[in-house]
Specification:
- Helix content is 82%, strand content 0%.
- The protein is flat.
- The protein is an all-alpha fold.
- The two termini are 19 Å apart.
Length: 110
């Protein structure tokens, strides 16, 4: 159950961080305005809170593992929201990152 909770929190953190960064990008680069930027800043702040609820007590481990989730999640966001089509190298890199997440977070420890 702890692993399921952790995976859900990683997914929520990815939506908050990637979505927040995308909103800021839209506000600045696509000139959508301050409301988009403000929404992005709020979402980025929410990411910090979501990450704090991970069951593992080690900040460095959580953030290191989340880096891999961020890589894969960013590619998925691009596909779903921006029409991006990753190539085999993008997909291979994301898979390597997710294996790293699994090793960092869920390997048995003594």
């Amino acid at each position: 159950m702890t692993t399921v909770r952790s995976l859900i929190l990683f997914a929520l953190a990815a939506v908050a961080e990637i979505g927040g960064a995308w909103l800021v990008w839209q506000g600045v680069r696509e000139q959508r305005g301050l409301l988009w930027i403000a929404a992005g800043v709020l979402a980025l702040g929410a990411y910090g809170f979501v990450a704090a609820f991970q069951p593992d007590p080690h900040f460095g481990r959580i953030l290191a593992a989340y880096g891999g989730v961020f890589v894969a999640g960013s590619l998925l966001w691009g596909v779903l929201v921006d029409g991006f089509r990753p190539d085999r190298w993008d997909l291979s890199g994301a898979a390597i990152c997710l294996v790293g997440v699994a090793v960092i977070m869920y390997a048995p420890r003594a």
